[in-house]
Amino acid sequence: MFSYKNLGIGIAVLTLTTIGVTGCATNGSQQPVGGPTSPSNQTVTKTTNSTISNSTNNAPATVTANTTQNTVGTGNSTNSVKILSNQPNSSAHQFPNIVSMAMQHFPANVLSRPEVPTILATPTSGSNQLFYRTWDTTTGSILNYSVQFSSPHNQLATFMGSTFSGISAGDSVWLPNGMPNNAKVTTSSVDLTSGIVAKEQTFVAPKNSAKEVSSNSLTWSEGRWKIEVARTESTQVPTAEADAVASFLHSHFMPVPQTKGTIYVNVYPGETAQGHLSGTSVSETIKWQEGQHVYEIDTYSHCKNPIRTGLAMAMSMKPYSAGSQVTLSSRGSNASSPHVTLESVQVNANSLTLYTTHGTMQTAYTNPRISHGVFMVDLVNMSLTSGISVGKTYSKDGLSYEFADHGPDLTLTCHFAANPPSAVQTGIGGGDMIGFTFTYSK
Fold it and tell me: Where are the annotated segments for Disordered (predicted)?
């Protein structure tokens, strides 16, 4: 039995990319590559409550997070993450902040060559809340990191990576055999989209069988990928689902496995919230080998289009480094940050945006707050361009603002002519923009 450690739980509320939809695994049922594991008794649980403003693809979104960390057996500690952003960071590959937040939970020994998706899941419920939970395997011949996503009520998707030592990584990449041993199976061929010809197998379970259920599957290969689309508890051919896979593979480039990769889609009877059978549900598992590493994507029925989402997540996987991570610690007023120059300010009816020379926006501001209807924020190691002056008041659209010196830093103060804001959300983007969006009481 591998040591499988539950490291963290988090929540973020955000608007997701239109292509992305993925799924999560339940605590205790997560299947790492190579065999089942269970959470160990020594667990660290980290809960993050976050709110991210709406965003379009590649547009910044805001996370306001409060983090409570509970360590079993060693007492409790509390940190406050003031403001984070869901804007993809400015490293070589751009990752959603929730991915970076999750990856920060893992020890270095399980991240020998990590890859993570840049596409996220969208729940069918329409909720814009996304939770994450992390696990890892830190000892033994298989080291593993795993991140699952969920909506407030349902599992959506999981991504994981495993490193194998002393055993073959390729042995863990296989398709399940859904047909009972020595079963009487009928076989034929089915034409799919894009010129694919799949092998069809149908098994009809004996009447009154307590152990076996009828099933139908379609299998084919594309390059080093082997694909199976199976329907359980029915002999109906899952042609539509197989066509969805074939169509995506025809128009997109998947990762290239070193020896083999597998795509398994399971179509099974759906259920209502009350447990009554209704329609169908779909899940997908994608695995591929790269040397001694195996990567896996799982999507579940409560994410939008789990087939396309799982494939899109796999396609979006990129190498990840510790330098891509967002720091989940409080920023104090003396936080260090590379020097930047404020070049311009843009004011709209409910927002104020600062444009600077290129820098590290995550550390370029601290302590955004509203007190007695006045908004203030400290700008760390920031100076003003020649067209903007300290102590001068600027006004537009009912908002007036001014800058004051605060040692090497600046303090921005905003006054509102009418209804003062009750809350502020902060977003960063492009390495040169900090935006503040105000929410007004009704």
Answer: 27-89
